[in-house]
């Protein structure tokens, strides 16, 4: 007897398979104008790198000529003789960030100090939600700032793969009300998943009439399978010969560069590097993580430059909060507030250290006071780099840093 569509949805085998799908399925409803980027090669793109755990900004961009820094960190403070990479304004990069120093020397790095928001929250989860949603600390928002960018009237953002997270799960940042990005670690494995026999049969069926949820499932499967085919085919075009760090983060950056250099029509890429919750053994953890970060971004820049893609790429690096100014008893630092952000790319209008170092003489109960609202940076990126309506996405009241990108 022939199997019906409804039978398929009821079978335990398909149900079991679908349990795997939410980690990867983040397709969006079809809309008008599915042409994708009209010029994938020349279109501007954004790569967001999230430093998860709350990176210590003071030991990232170090005020190495400020006695208050060493007074607050008698053993944790990094001394000039230890190899600080001098920038300007009496600031220097952590010795392990040689890759970022190379970008700085080329005029391809912007450093933003004391970035945060009013009434900061020290919870990892809550503060990350605030940064990913682009909301205030007194708001709970269920969509992300880049997801709302996808929702906006963006003619080039109507395919699931127009925003890609190189990971197993999709972050809030890429979830909009009607459109969402797509999460995948590897185009080949992602494509293999969609070739599952039962899923393949279901996606070729037509959804039953008058069943909205089932209809959405069918369309999601079709969109996802189409995206998987597209990304898999594109991923065969270019394989990088550039040496990246031998780590998950390095591999994810390499995947990102391969997709870009293959001509994938994506406006946004999202990656994460975890491990920055340095309550203990901060020196060792930051040394390892910063080597990964600096060398990885330098390799990415080199890879994209070789294919004339660096000048139309902007990299934004952030963490959900900084750390306390004073070190703790375990040779680490506890959750703090304002933090450092980086922008990198070949077409930066302003370069180097953009604003003053944190004011260590004017703290808020041991924490840094923010100089720049992170949503001003988002507004700048959205409007001046991606050409989007920043006020429609973020709301009003966030002055852009004009002339930055």
Quick summary of this structure?
With 405 residues, the protein is an alpha/beta fold. It is 35% helix and 13% strand.
Could you characterize what this model shows?
With 405 residues, this protein is an alpha/beta fold. 35% of the residues lie in helices and 13% in strands. It contains 13 helices and 12 strands. The protein has helices spanning 5-10, 12-20, 67-72, 98-105, 124-133, 145-151, 187-194, 197-203, 212-235, 248-261, 282-305, 374-385, 390-394, and strands at residues 45-52, 61-62, 85-86, 92-93, 109-116, 163-165, 182-183, 268-274, 313-319, 339-345, 352-353, 372-373. The strands form 2 sheets. Strands 1, 5, 6, 7, 8, 9, 10, 11 and 12 form a 9-stranded mixed sheet that branches. Helix 4 crosses helix 11, helix 7 (187-194) packs across helix 9 and helix 10 packs parallel to helix 11 (282-305). The longest helix has 24 residues, at 212-235. Residues 1-39 have low confidence and may be disordered.
Total number of beta strands: 12
Helix amount: 25-40%
> What structural category arises from helix and sheet content?
alpha/beta
Number of helices, where a helix is a run of at least 4 consecutive DSSP H or I residues: 13
Tell me about the biggest sheet?
9 strands, mixed
CA-to-CA gap between the ends? 63 Å
**Tertiary shape:** globular
Tell me the strand percentage band: 5-15%
SSE topology:
Blueprint: H1 5-10, H2 12-20, E1 45-52, E2 61-62, H3 67-72, E3 85-86, E4 92-93, H4 98-105, E5 109-116, H5 124-133, H6 145-151, E6 163-165, E7 182-183, H7 187-194, H8 197-203, H9 212-235, H10 248-261, E8 268-274, H11 282-305, E9 313-319, E10 339-345, E11 352-353, E12 372-373, H12 374-385, H13 390-394
Parallel strand pairs: 1-8, 1-9, 5-11, 5-12, 6-7, 6-8
Antiparallel strand pairs: 2-4, 3-4, 5-10, 9-10
Helix pairs in contact: 4-11, 7-9, 8-9, 10-11
């Amino acid at each position: 007897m022939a199997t019906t569509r409804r039978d398929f949805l009821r079978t335990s085998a398909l149900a079991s398979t679908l349990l795997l799908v939410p980690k990867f399925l983040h397709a969006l409803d079809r809309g008008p104008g599915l042409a994708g980027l009209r010029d994938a090669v020349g279109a501007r793109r954004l790569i967001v790198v999230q430093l998860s755990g709350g990176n210590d900004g003071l030991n990232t961009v170090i005020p190495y000529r400020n006695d208050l820094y060493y007074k607050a960190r008698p053993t944790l403070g990094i001394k000039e003789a230890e190899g600080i990479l001098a920038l300007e304004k009496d600031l220097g990069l952590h010795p392990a960030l040689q890759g970022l120093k190379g970008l700085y020397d080329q005029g391809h790095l912007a450093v933003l100090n004391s970035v945060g928001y009013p009434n900061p929250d020290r919870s990892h989860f809550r503060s990350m939600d605030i940064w990913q949603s682009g909301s205030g600390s007194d708001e709970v928002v269920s969509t992300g700032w880049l997801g709302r960018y996808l929702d906006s009237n963006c003619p080039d953002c109507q395919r699931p793969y127009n925003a890609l997270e190189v990971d197993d799960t999709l972050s809030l940042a890429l979830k909009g009300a009607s459109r969402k990005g797509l999460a995948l670690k590897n185009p080949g494995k992602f494509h293999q998943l969609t070739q599952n026999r039962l899923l393949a049969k279901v996606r070729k069926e037509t959804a039953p009439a008058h069943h909205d949820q089932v209809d959405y499932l069918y369309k999601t499967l079709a969109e996802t399978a189409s995206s998987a085919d597209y990304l898999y085919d594109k991923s065969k075009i270019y394989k990088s010969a550039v040496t990246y760090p031998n780590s998950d983060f390095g591999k994810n950056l390499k995947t990102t560069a391969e997709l870009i250099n293959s001509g994938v029509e994506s406006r946004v890429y999202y990656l994460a590097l975890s491990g920055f919750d340095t309550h203990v053994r901060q020196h060792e953890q930051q040394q390892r993580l910063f080597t990964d970060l600096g060398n990885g971004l330098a390799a990415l820049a080199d890879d994209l430059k070789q294919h004339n893609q660096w000048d139309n790429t902007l990299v934004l690096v952030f963490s959900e909060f900084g750390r306390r100014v004073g070190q703790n008893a375990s040779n680490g630092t506890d959750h703090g507030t304002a933090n450092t952000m980086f922008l990198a790319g070949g077409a930066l209008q302003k370069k180097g250290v953009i604003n003053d170092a944190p004011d260590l003489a004017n703290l808020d109960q041991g924490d840094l006071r923010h100089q720049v609202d992170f949503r001003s940076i988002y507004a700048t990126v959205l409007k001046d780099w991606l050409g989007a309506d920043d006020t429609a996405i973020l709301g009003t009241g966030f002055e852009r840093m004009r002339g930055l990108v």
